[in-house]
Structures are given as structure tokens and as C-alpha cells.
Amino acid sequence: MVSNAPSTTAPAVELSNVVKRFGQVQAVDGLDLTVQRAQVLALLGPNGAGKTTTVEMCEGFSSPDDGAVRVLGLDPVADAAALKPRIGVMLQGGGAYPGSRAGEMLKLVASYSANPIDPDWLLRTLGLSEAVRTPYRRLSGGQQQRLALACAIVGRPEMVFLDEPTAGMDAQAKNLVWEMIDALRRDGVAILLTTHLMDEAEQLADELVIIDHGRVLASGTPSEVTSRNVEPRLCFRAPADLDLTALQATLPAGHAVSQVTPGSYQVDGEVSPRLVAAVANWCADRDVLATELRVDKRSLEDVFLDLTGRELRG
Ligand SMILES: Nc1ncnc2c1ncn2[C@@H]1O[C@H](COP(=O)(O)OP(=O)(O)OP(=O)(O)O)[C@@H](O)[C@H]1O
């Protein structure tokens, strides 16, 4: 149950049976979600799943139609004045004056805080030193993103909301931001991030929540989500176009072998010592060298697509 009393020991974010409608669209449909202190929670979902709507309710930009939202034990709308100084919000390209310089912008945001992080240090750490005097509109997309992150954290928030924090960034900038997120967590900051990048979610998140149509489809640690929702499978490489009908006939019942790309094969069905032996023996009997015979844990992306479907969203 979500308590009404503000509390320093309350979870960083607690959503209880939250509902949000836009006309006929049920954007969020009975969502329960908890972000603990010093934890990174990644909210995953296809386009239109309800991620932004959920995060906006946490940030106090809108109210739920039903259920309760608490951030640091407070109501994000009713207690906005008390909450705002304690949270950081990274907006996608929003809230910036196009003509103002990067360094000035960050210093302005820092000036609203009682005990800000040194803006020059933050600019250096996020690789923005050379862009200090660059007007916002002239910054590259990746630099704008990093500046938005700097603005979100300069006031030493206890809880940070990051909306696709590395969208459009090159590999170097992405690493820098990942390191910063990790450092924030080590400092006890709670982070709720939305992302479409599965590697980002796996790399950073203590908890994953996959939603679609405003409902939770799966949640847990990255390894819980991948192991609970999809069986591992047997994979191997061998010369292309093996006689799969013949191989299939020797496998234990309930297994299906297929060629994923030329020379790359997978066997769907429960992995057992008998199955591994059957594949190895069949290859050996035909003098076929099976390389990279392995039991693959399926990727988070596999799980995500299995749960949310493969069709394109609007
Ligand atoms: N202000 C609004 N008015 C009407 N419908 C809205 C509004 N905001 C969101 N929606 C609808 O609510 C649903 C959830 O949208 P939301 O933006 O939360 O999804 P999302 O998971 O953030 O998607 P994306 O990954 O594309 O950013 C969608 O069907 C969207 O069209």
C-alpha cells in the first residue's frame, strides 16, 4: 500500500494500481511499480506502451485518473514545491533557450539549488568543456543530451528521471553517461530511466520492468527477466544447408531445428544432455564439424520481442 505520510525511508518511487486515460486510450492500466533508493530501474516498452505517461505522472506533470503515485513519499502534484528540489528530470530537448550558452545554462540551473555540484566539474566530467561557450542550438544532439543530464543532476537530486538518456549518442558519449549513472547510484541516488536500448537496460538496471498497453508484462533483475521468460536453446555452427529433416528425426520429441542464417543453426525445445549428444552424434556420423556448439541464454531483446510482439507500432 502507498502511504500518505511523507517519509525519508519511503521507496524513491511507488506506483500503486495507477490508471491514466486519454479519451478512449487507456495509456496506463493498473500499473504497480517500485523504485528503491540507490537503484536503477529501467522501464522498457514499445512505442506507445505508456512509459512517458508513467514518468510524467511521477514528475508531477499530470495526475493519475486512479491509483496512487508517490515519489520520495510525496504526492508529485500536491507536494510539488517540496518535491521539485529533490528530484532531477532529464527532458528530451526540452526546457532550453536555443540562444543561451551551455555553460550559462548549467550555471543558471545550479543557481536554483542550495548545494549544487560544481558546474565546471560536471561539464568536464561529461565531456562538455569545449562546448561551454557554444549556444544550445549549435550543440550536437549528443552534447544537448549530456547538457540535459547535467542540468538534471547538478542540484544533487535524490531521485532522477531519465528519458532515453543516450538516444542518438555515439559509443564514447554513451559510455560516459553510463558511468555517470553508475556513479549516481553508488552515491545513493535512485534512477528511473526509459530506454529502447536493450544493452543499456542490461548494463545499468538493477530492475527491469517491461510494459505494454500500460500494463506490466515482466519485471525483475535483468537475469531474472531473461531466464524466467524464455528457455535457453541449443545453437551451433556447421557448413550451410545441412539435411535438417534427417537431423530432426534423430532428436528427442518436441524439438525443432532450423537454420537461422547460412551455417548457423538453432534447436528450439528443452535443452538436455540427450539433446546435446544427439546433435553432436548426428554431426559426427556424417563427418560434419559442429563449431560453437553452445547453450544460449536468450537475449533480453528476444524476451522483449516475445512478450510485446514483432509487429511495428504506430
Ligand atoms: N496527451 C495525450 N493525449 C492523447 N493521447 C496520449 C497523450 N499522451 C499519450 N497518449 C497516448 O497514450 C499512449 C501511451 O503513450 P506514451 O507516450 O506514454 O508511450 P511511450 O511508451 O512513452 O511511447 P514512446 O516509446 O513512443 O515514447 C499512446 O497511445 C499515446 O498515443
UniProtKB/TrEMBL annotation:
It is found in: Cell membrane. Pfam families: ABC_tran. Signal peptide: none annotated. GO terms for biological process: response to antibiotic; transmembrane transport. It is a peripheral membrane protein. It comes from the Bacteria. InterPro entries: AAA+_ATPase, ABC_transporter-like_ATP-bd, ABC_transporter-like_CS, ABC_transporter_ATP-binding, P-loop_NTPase. Gene3D superfamilies: P-loop containing nucleotide triphosphate hydrolases. Residues 13-238 form the ABC transporter domain. One of its GO terms (molecular function) is ATP binding. Its main location: membrane. Keywords: Antibiotic resistance, ATP-binding, Cell membrane, Membrane, Nucleotide-binding, Translocase, Transport. GO terms for cellular component: plasma membrane. PANTHER family: ABC TRANSPORTER ATP-BINDING PROTEIN. This is ABC transporter ATP-binding protein. It comes from Speluncibacter jeojiensis.
